[in-house]
Design a protein that fits this description.
The complex is a heterotrimer. Chain A is mostly helical. Chain A has helices at 2-6, 8-17, 29-52, 59-77, 84-104, 110-130, 132-135, 157-180, 182-192, 194-199, 204-230, 240-253, 261-279, 283-297, 301-308, and strands at 141-142, 148-149, 152-153, 232-233. Chain A has a two-stranded antiparallel ribbon with strand order 1-4. In chain A, helix 3 packs parallel to helix 8 and helix 3 crosses helix 12 (240-253). In chain B, 72% of the residues lie in helices and 3% in strands. By secondary structure, chain B is an all-alpha fold. A two-stranded antiparallel sheet of chain B has the order 1-2. In chain B, a hairpin with a 2-residue loop joins strand 1 and strand 2. Chain C has 9 helices and 10 strands. Chain C has helices spanning 42-50, 72-75, 95-106, 121-133, 149-161, 179-196, 206-212, 230-235, 237-252, and strands spanning 4-13, 16-26, 31-35, 57-62, 65-66, 80-82, 167-171, 198-202, 215-220, 223-228. In chain C, the strands form 2 sheets. In chain C, strands 6-7-8-3-9-10 form a 6-stranded mixed sheet, with helices on both faces. In chain C, strands 2-1-4-5 form a 4-stranded antiparallel sheet, covered by helices on one side. Residues 247-253 of chain C have low confidence and may be disordered. By secondary structure, chain C is of the alpha/beta class. The radius of gyration of chain C is 19 Å and the shape is globular. The chains are: A mainly alpha, B mainly alpha, C alpha/beta. At the A-C interface, helix 8, helix 9, helix 10 and helix 11 of A face helix 2 and helix 3 of C.
Amino acid sequence: MKKILKDPYLWIFLIFLCYPLYPYLGDYISLGTELLIWFIFTLSFNLCLGYTGLPSFGHGAFYGLGAYGTALTFLHLYNKDGFFVPIILGALIGGLFAGGLGYLIRNKKGVYFAMLTVAFTQVLYFICWRWDEVTGGEAGIKGIVRSSFLGIDMGNSYNFYYFVFIAFVLCALVIRRIAESSFGKSLQAIKQNPIRAEALGYNTGFYKFAVYTISGFFAGLAGGLYCFLTQSAFASVLDWSKSGDVVIATLLGGGTVSFYGPLVGSLIFVVAQELLSAFWEHWMLLYGLSFVIIILVLPTGLMGILKRK
Amino acid sequence: MESLILSLLLNGIGLGLVYAAVAIGFSLVLGVSGVINFSHGIMYAMGAYFFWVLQGHIGFWPSVAITPLLVAMIGFVIERVLIRRVYGQDPLFGLVITLGFAMAVEELIRITFGSAAYSISAPSFAKGVFSFGDFIYPEYRLFISVVAAAMLATLWLLMEKTNFGAVVKAGMFNSEMVGALGNNLPLLRTIVFVIGATLAGLSGIIAAPIWSIKSQMGTLILMPSFVIVLMGGLGSIPGTILGGILVGVSTSLATLIIPRFVDIIPYMMMAFIIYFRPRGIFGEQNIVE
Amino acid sequence: MSFLSIEGLTKRFGNLVAVNQISLEVEKEGILSIIGPNGAGKTTFFNLLTGFYRPDSGRVILKGRDITNRPPHENIKEGISRAFQVASLFDEMTVLDNIRIGVQSYMGVKGRLFSRFEDNAEVREESLKLLEKVKLQEIGAHTVKALSHGDRKILDLAMALTTRPEILLLDEPASGLAGEEQARMVELITEHLRKELKLVIVEHDMDMVFSISDHIMVLNQGKKLAYGTPQEIADNEEVQEAYLGGDRCHARA
């Protein structure tokens, strides 16, 4: 029992279980929903960055493909009982593309790995942007309807919030389980000393491929949820700015030093972005400068400060 | 039809040489410092904007002389103040810090000049057209090909014929060795960064009259650089030129045949090339692997 | 057929032939030491045997199976393992976790996605046994970063043992060690390891080499200069001229 009380997840789950009840904040229900989606996205990304040391700059693409996969499944294949099938298919598409890319570049290191993730995910972006017949091109896909799930009306934003909340809890538990598993420890070993890991029998290329695929799956799932939140899918979601956002949110919180770092980072990132963009047309200036400041001043993020003390 | 194809081909070569002149700086910085420099494109944009503003006040030639110096100075400052801090760290650090800087400058451009695109007229000495039989081609487009080629040739001489070039090339194989041999690695990295910034700035000046100037121009030129570096091979000048021309010509001709997929074609070629030659056409083993 | 046979192994780096046509038959028992001046190709030779480098020509045959050109992570399953010249550890982990990473690899549970690393009792038990064997049990909970040089070298060797090799390559096990630390390492090698498995050692400390080895191979400029028992090597005039006399002073200096 004591162990459970000390678990950060318990408190995070409780806080977000009550989110719609808070005065003032409760009105921003879609902000809360988006936050939960970001939690899933950054936690999954951090399996790559924080746990395996894979400098991926292409997770925006898997998120975006998840959104497209979900939207297309919903519109053309299956929309009987709401979300479940489209979102899982979206996640699978995210995982599939991440797996394909991960397989191709599994033995590349450092800067070269990062370069290749940028270049290849840019291809996906252009395809989605230009392939009008399927993706709607610049106009994107609209008209995704949140009907009902298990008889609950999902048109209601509060009901949808709780749907996403449950998805978040499940994903968060699974991702943490993976991080704490034998596999997760193997990833950390590969991050800290790939040569020794090879010498101990670890096929480092395979592990990188595997974690990239898993991470892409959850990123796709987050994208699928986002598709239902905004009831649309746009190519701009695949753009590199999204990939940059997930990196900065993860670093800001301290994903490299703590499992919970991405949650802290997403919270600050999403709220700050919401506030900034509402108050100043040229918020991108501050946004860009904040990237610079975070790297210079807070390279291990907020959790890094806590851990140092 | 033939003359159309010929002019598209020439357009493509000119475009490719400009791409190459921008990409080579990106490539050298990546090779010597291990930083994926997302702020490289903004140097190109700054070149164009500084030139545009200065030209109105001090005339054409003085602006051509002063603009590269300004861009070089800015390059020097950001290398010393920002980029230096991330050497040897996680590759994403360099990427994010330069991306942040580029975003901020791009927004600064929007604050100062608005989001509209401006067009600049070609300088008076190259305003005419060049005609050969019934084939007509704007002089200015030939002019930029020549200037870009001259920049690349100068850099090639610097890299191949001087001691400095030899040290830069050694730095791409083993940066520790460069330090151990008594060379000043931090200084070398600064110089390479400034050279890259200057070339990008100059490219911005010569390209401005053809492709109007706009706030996103820095971001737009960056992606071809990625593709060209991966295709041609890191740090290789011949590879960068070949990569640039491949990208330039293929996109130029594609506008005629499959205009919708213009953006994707360079990536397809890149994927094809690095499938068979993972280090690019002229790529050799280097430190970033 | 001998336990390990090496046939014409060659590795070039540009114009430099780092390992040149080395052939050798190695018996299952005893300690084989490889000596030679710096740059003789000793570490390259190790990297070739374990698959970290691919040879330009030649073959490595272990227990009748050709293991040339196989990546290190596959070689390990054939029973060949190595320790490193500069202790190569997982610096952010504890001593016990370093060992566990190796043991879970050997036990084939390293890729389990949903079973907690901490909860695997078998891996834990096996790792604790190994720590006891190398006498590191008291610092099992320490983070590796904080270890002394001597403990790091021992831990590095212990990690090489996690995969239960039949042949173990040690790259300068005593480098940087002195006095009690060196005695600990020598004791571990001669009292425990030599009885259990084949040892191939690269070492600069000549006193140690001549006192513990059963056979010695001398390398010079990538080539095999001589091979024999310590006595034969000590009596070999070619070796004395080319190498031993000079380097003996080096080793002491």
